[in-house]
Amino acid sequence: xYKKLHIEEEKYKNSITDKKTNATKKATKxxxxxxxxxxEASVNMMRMFNQKITVYSVAKEAQxxxxxxxxxxxxxxxxxx
Length: 81
Hints:
Layout: H1 2-15, H2 18-48, H3 55-62, H4 66-71, H5 73-79
């Protein structure tokens, strides 16, 4: 059992390349930017319609997870006024 786990761990370590690492970073950045744009748009729409702006309501409106919206809590709170 240990030998099999060790072999799998070695395969994993050998599969990590600069190309994969850079691709992962690029994809993560693209997802973050998309989420930020959704949140900004939702905050602006909610402000325009005088709706109560909370992290939960923005997450629901932007169709992102609560945890994702929580990362932008400072932006949400700042623009809720």
